Amino acid sequence: MSYKDKVYIEDLAKYAGQEVELNGWVYTKRGKGKLQFVILRDGTGICQCVVFKANVSEEVFANTKSLTQESSIKVKGKVVANERAPGGFELDTSDLQIYQLSTDYPITPKEHGDDFLIRNRHLWLRSSRQHAIMRVRASVIKAVRDFFDNSGFKLQDSPMFTPNACEGTSTLFSTKYFDLGEAFLSQSGQLYAEATAMAMGRVYTFGPAFRAEKSKTRKHLTEFWMVEPEMAFFDLEDDMQLAEDLTVYIVQYVLENCRKELETLERDITKLEAIQGNFPRMSYTEAVGWMNANDIPLTKRVDGKDVEIRPFPWGEDFGTPQEEALMEQFSQPCFIYDYPTEIKAFYMKRNPDNPKVVKAMDMLGPEKAGELVGGSQREDNVELLEERIKAEDLDMTDFAWYVDLRKYGSVPHSGFGMGIERVIKWITGAKHIRETIPFPRMIHRIIP
Amino acid sequence: MSYKDKVYIEDLAKYAGQEVELNGWVYTKRGKGKLQFVILRDGTGICQCVVFKANVSEEVFANTKSLTQESSIKVKGKVVANERAPGGFELDTSDLQIYQLSTDYPITPKEHGDDFLIRNRHLWLRSSRQHAIMRVRASVIKAVRDFFDNSGFKLQDSPMFTPNACEGTSTLFSTKYFDLGEAFLSQSGQLYAEATAMAMGRVYTFGPAFRAEKSKTRKHLTEFWMVEPEMAFFDLEDDMQLAEDLTVYIVQYVLENCRKELETLERDITKLEAIQGNFPRMSYTEAVGWMNANDIPLTKRVDGKDVEIRPFPWGEDFGTPQEEALMEQFSQPCFIYDYPTEIKAFYMKRNPDNPKVVKAMDMLGPEKAGELVGGSQREDNVELLEERIKAEDLDMTDFAWYVDLRKYGSVPHSGFGMGIERVIKWITGAKHIRETIPFPRMIHRIIP
Prior knowledge:
Two copies of one chain form a homodimer.
Chain A: E1 19-32, E2 35-41, E3 46-52, H1 58-66, E4 72-81, E5 89-100, H2 114-119, H3 121-124, H4 128-149, E6 154-155, E7 161-162, E8 174-176, E9 182-185, H5 190-200, E10 202-210, E11 223-232, H6 236-257, H7 259-264, H8 269-273, E12 281-283, H9 284-293, E13 298-302, E14 305-309, H10 320-327, E15 334-340, E16 350-351, E17 354-365, E18 370-377, H11 382-391, H12 400-407, E19 413-419, H13 420-428
Parallel strand pairs in A: 3-5, 6-10, 12-15
Antiparallel strand pairs in A: 1-2, 1-4, 2-3, 4-5, 7-9, 8-9, 10-11, 11-19, 13-14, 15-17, 16-17, 17-18, 18-19
C-alpha cells in the first residue's frame, strides 16, 4: 500500500459509507457497558470511534476498555455520518489494535500551571489549543510565502552567521568561528536583502532571527522568525502599501483556511473580518499631537521611579502605554511614519526636506497586538550613509560591502520586517508569545 | 501610482505596443553614432533599450552615451517585438534618466579569480550565472514547500538553539545562553520534528542547520538549509517513496518554471528530464556485493598513507569514491537502505529480524551529486532507544523529553533530511556549493 492511500480524519467526508483504517492516539474515552466511545486524534482532526461489543471480537473489546489517554492505536471501521459527532462523521468500529498503551500521561484534563506545561512542551503540543495555534502558524507562514512568491518576489535567504551587528552588539549571541574570531547570530537579514534586491529586484528573506535581550515580556522570544521583503525602486509609500496588502492577505487566508482552528481558540472572528485594507496612517508628529490632545504622557524610569512627562516631547519614542492608547480607536492596524532621525537606525533614509526625520514606518496592530511591522526607505546616498555609520561608531570596514551598494548603481529602495510570532499571537489571540512557536526559546527556557 | 502598476522586464510581452517605464541597471551598452543600445537588467530579466538620437532630447542622448556598467536608470519607451532581442521584446526609448552613474564597477566582463568573486559576493549575485542559480534556488524551495503543504503536511519549525547534540558535539557551534550555560546551534531539527509529528501527524521543518566541520570540500557549508519531513505511521518503505516523490516534484517544477535559467546555466536538460520516478533501490549488503563484483575497494587513510582494502568489508561506510562508482550506472537517484547499525545514528530503528542493521536509507544523486537525502524509520521501542543512548555516552537527562515520545503513545514513524544546497548544486550544475546560497559560510569565509 502506498503512503498516499492512508486515510486521515480531516478527509473522512470523502469516505462516507466506506471501510477505512485510521491511525492515531486516544484523546479521551468514555463508555457504558457494551458501548465504548474512543475519541481518536491523528493530527489532522478528531474522530469518534464507536465500539459496540457485538461488532468486535472479545479481545478487541477488552483492549478498547483498557485504553488510556494518548495510547496509540489502529482502528478499522465504516465511516458513518453523524451530525453530533465532531467533524460530522464517526467510525463504526470493526477492529482496533493497540500500538502502545500509554501510562500516566502527564497532561491530564485538569488545569496545569504554565511552568509545568512549558516544561512538557513536547507533549503539550498535542492539546487542542496548542494544536490549533500550530496549525494557524503553518497557515500564516504559507500565506506569507504565497503572497510574495505570487507577486514577483524571489526568496533570498540571508545568512545567520554575520561578522557585524545591524542594531547594536549588546543584544547579540556570538559563537567562535574557526580562526576568524567571533561570529554573531543575525538579528535581521535586511542588510543582505538589500544586496540581493539589487540583483533580483524584489526579494524576501524569511528565517530565524536572534535577540539576546533580557526582556521577559509576553511579546519577546530570543529566537523568532521574521520575514523581510526588500524592494528596489520602492519608496516609503510603496513600502507601507505592501505591508498592508500582506497583512490583509494573511488574515484573509487564515479566515478561509483555519475556521475550525479559530473556533477551537474561541477567537472573535469579527475582529479579523474587519481587516480589509485602507489602514489608517499618521505621521509621528501627528501621533505626538494626538498624545497631547488626549493627555497621554511620556512615561520614563528616572532614578528608580516612574515619571510622567507632559506634554509628550517630540523626539521621544513611543512605548507600550502610548501605542495601546493610540490604537484603542482603531479596529485595523495603523501606520506611524516619518520618525525622528535620532531614535531610528542608521540605514534609514533622511527626509531631504527635513533631516530631523527619517522615512521610517511602524505598523501597530489592533487589540494590543503591538508593533507587527517595522520598515523604512533606505539611505541611498553614499555620503549620508557613511556619515551615519561613523556617527554610530560602527566599524566602516565591516560595512564596506554594504556601502558598495550605494556606490555601484544606488537606487531608491525600501523594505520592512514582520515578526511572525507577533502576527500569530494577534491572529490566534494566544495569551503569551511562547504559545506561537513549537519550541519557544526565552531567557530561562531552552528545554525541551 | 500603486507599486502594483510597476512594469518588470519579465512581463513585457503583456505591454507590447504600449509605452512603459522600466527601472534597472545597465548590464552592458554598445553603440555607434546616433544609435545606442542599453542592455538593462531589472532582476527579472534583460531588455535591450534602443536609444536613437532623433527620438530623445540632446541631454538624454548625452546621458545615454555616458552610461557605465551597473549605472542605475529609469527608461521610458514603447515595447516593440524583436525576435533577435533577449526576451523577444525591446524598448524604443523616448526618455532615460540616471539615478546614479556607477564608476569602476569591480566585476568586469573579463575573467576573475574565485577568491575575488566570493569576496564580492554582494555584487557577484548580479552576474547572469549567479542570478540564474539564485532564481532556481527560490524555485527549488518553493517546490519543496508546495509539495508538503499540498500533501497534508504542516510546517513545524524546530528550534535553532538546542541544549544537546543530535550527532556528536565536535562539529557544533555553541553560544553562551544567559545563565543556562552553553546552547548549541542545531545540526538537525529531526528530534523536535518527531515531537511535532506526534501532535500533527505529518510535519516538516525547514530552516538553517549548522555544522562546524572542518571540511573544505565542494559539498560543505557551515550554514546550510535543510528540509526534514517526519511522519507518524510511516515505515521505511513509505519514507523512501516520499523522498522519491519529492525529488521528482522538485525537478519537474524547476523544468517547468526555470527553463530560461537552465539555458543561461547551459544545463543539459535531458539529464533532468530523466528524473521520472521508480528510482533504483539496493540494500547496503547488495551495494557491498556490487563493490566487490566490480573490484571497488574500501579506501582508508592509515598511518598517513592511502590504503585500498579488498574485498570491501561489510560494515564499513561508503565514501565518495564508492558512491560515485556505484552511481555511474544510474541516470536517476538511487536508494541504499538497511545500513549496518554501527555506522548509523542512535535514533534509527533496528531491524527486529537482524539487529545488525537499521532501517536507514540514503538517496544518492546521479552525476556525482552525492548524498541528497538521508533518513530512517525511528526507534520506537523505549528500552532499545535508551540502550542506544547509553551506548553512545549521551546524557540521558538531555534526552528525557525525546524518550517521552516512546513512553506516551509510541508509534512507528519515519523521516528524512534533504540538504537544499546539494539539490540546487545538482539541478543547476553549479561547480561549487558556495554558488548555491546567497551568502555562503565556509571555514575561511564569513564576509560579506
